[in-house]
């Protein structure tokens, strides 16, 4: 299908590599009959602005410039990868970034020594506003409006970017990403039965699902939830795609309808909650580091990959030959959770 892409700011090093994980695939081939697992290295989009958010930001920043904006306001958790990528991408594009962060429960926002992504937000010159959990949850739309008005008063113009950059604009990143990964697979002589990713604000999954349907491939996109449940993500994907259809009625010709029935979410591996992992998840991260030299993170990719390995054990992918795990990045999130990896280093 001919897809009419909007303007794009080139920020990522594309295409990212597609690599076979043969050692881990071998480990799970017997007795589980697991597939050949491939990894799409979207953690390598750019070393500092690494991860999936940069694909979305290519379209978001192009839109910001087209609207004459000089500021980007966005939001997320204290260790938000999306906010960090936005802070750096804004710096590169000559825009100001302002990140509205949900202070983590156990940090005293005032006395905090910034670590991981938060440290990088400051390094990149972003304006950082930390809000207590309660205020963040109850006032987020108002906070966006207040700050937008604040900048307007100063004669500046801000673009507000929703959580994770996930909406009808941001999902262009993974419509293009789906096109890229399917082309990579064809280059290797196969069409994957499954594309698997961590799903958090839903946009990556929305883009991949929509992209695969636009391409007309039968590849099943499965999101492994890291926070909310299946019903939430089914709704969110439908909402992102509807927003995309409304904003870009001419993006595709010849009557296309998105089939929401094909959207698949597995919500059995969230663990105790968003950004909270379990010993098993930390161990799966260590396993991938040891067997493949591949670094996953405890908030998104480690949870999703742990879930994937467990589902392979349970026989879900018994009849699948090739499965692609989209590595969405997040490695800066390892360090603030160093204590969780204690069994890897404590007795060494
Ligand atoms: C944000 C993020 C995700 C989830 O992507 P969404 O588009 O928000 O669902 C997955 N992995 C990493 C590392 C992320 O930062």
Structural commentary:
- With 348 residues, the chain is of the alpha/beta class.
- It folds into 2 domains: 18-50 and 167-345, Rossmann fold (3-Layer(aba) Sandwich), CATH 3.40.50; 52-165, 3-Layer(aba) Sandwich (Rossmann fold).
- The protein is 40% helix and 15% strand.
- It has 11 helices and 10 strands.
- The strands form 2 sheets. A 6-stranded mixed β-sheet has the order 1-2-10-7-8-9. Strands 5-4-3-6 form a 4-stranded parallel β-sheet, with helices on both faces.
- Strand 4 (96-102), helix 4 and strand 5 form a beta-alpha-beta unit.
- It is globular.
- The protein binds pyridoxal-5'-phosphate.
- Pyridoxal-5'-phosphate (PLP) binds at residues 51-53, 81-82, 164, 166, 198-205, 297, 300-301, 328-330.
Would you kindly provide a brief summary of this structure?
The protein is an alpha/beta fold.
The small-molecule ligands in this entry are:
pyridoxal-5'-phosphate
What's the number of structural domains? 2
Secondary-structure element order, as H and E?
Answer: EHEHEHEHEHEHEHEHEHHEH
- Structural class, please? alpha/beta
Shape: globular
Number of E-type strands: 10
CATH topology type of the largest domain = Rossmann fold
**CATH level-1 class of the largest domain:** Alpha Beta
Helix proportion of residues, in percent? 40-55%
- What strand order characterises the main sheet? 1-2-10-7-8-9
* Proportion in β-strands: 5-15%
Mean pLDDT: 96
CATH architectural label of the largest domain: 3-Layer(aba) Sandwich
Please mark out the parts with pLDDT under 50 across 5 or more consecutive residues, or reply none.
Answer: none
Q: What can be said about the biggest beta sheet?
A: 6 strands, mixed
Query: Number of helical segments?
Result: 11
Chain oligomer state = single chain
Protein name: D-cysteine desulfhydrase family protein
InterPro entries: ACCD_DCysDesulf (IPR027278), TrpB-like_PALP (IPR001926), TrpB-like_PALP_sf (IPR036052)
Family: Belongs to the ACC deaminase/D-cysteine desulfhydrase family.
Domain Tryptophan synthase beta chain-like PALP: 12-329
């Amino acid at each position: 299908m001919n897809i009419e892409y909007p303007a794009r700011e080139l920020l990522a090093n594309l295409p990212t590599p597609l690599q076979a994980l043969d050692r881990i695939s071998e480990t799970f081939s017997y007795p589980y009959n697991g597939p050949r697992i491939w990894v799409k290295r979207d953690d390598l989009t750019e070393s500092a602005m690494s991860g999936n958010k940069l694909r979305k930001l290519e379209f978001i920043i192009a839109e910001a410039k087209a609207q004459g904006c000089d500021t980007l306001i966005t939001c997320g958790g204290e260790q938000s990868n999306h906010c960090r990528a936005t802070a750096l991408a804004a710096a590169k594009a000559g825009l100001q970034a302002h990140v509205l962060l949900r202070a983590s429960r156990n940090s005293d926002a005032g006395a905090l020594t910034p670590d991981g992504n938060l440290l990088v937000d400051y390094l990149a010159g972003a304006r950082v506003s930390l809000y207590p959990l309660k205020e963040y949850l109850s006032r987020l739309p108002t906070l966006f409006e207040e700050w937008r008005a604040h900048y307007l008063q100063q004669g500046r113009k801000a673009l507000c970017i929703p959580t994770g950059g996930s909406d009808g604009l941001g999902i262009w990143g993974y419509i293009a990403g789906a096109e890229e990964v399917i082309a990579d697979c064809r280059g290797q002589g196969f069409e994957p039965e499954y594309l698997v990713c961590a799903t958090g604000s839903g946009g990556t999954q929305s883009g991949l699902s929509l992209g695969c349907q636009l391409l007309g491939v039968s590849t099943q996109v499965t999101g492994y939830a890291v926070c909310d449940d299946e019903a939430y993500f089914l709704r969110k994907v439908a909402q992102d795609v509807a927003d995309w259809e409304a904003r870009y009625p001419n993006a595709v010709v010849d009557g296309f309808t998105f089939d929401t029935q094909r959207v698949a979410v597995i919500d059995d591996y969230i663990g105790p909650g968003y950004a909270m992992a379990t010993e098993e998840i930390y161990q799966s991260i260590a396993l991938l580091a040891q067997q493949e030299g591949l670094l996953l993170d405890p908030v998104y990719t480690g949870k999703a990959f742990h879930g994937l390995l467990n589902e392979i054990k349970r026989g879900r992918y018994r009849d699948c030959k090739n499965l692609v795990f989209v590595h969405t990045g997040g490695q800066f999130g390892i360090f603030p959770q160093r204590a969780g990896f204690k069994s890897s280093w404590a007795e060494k």
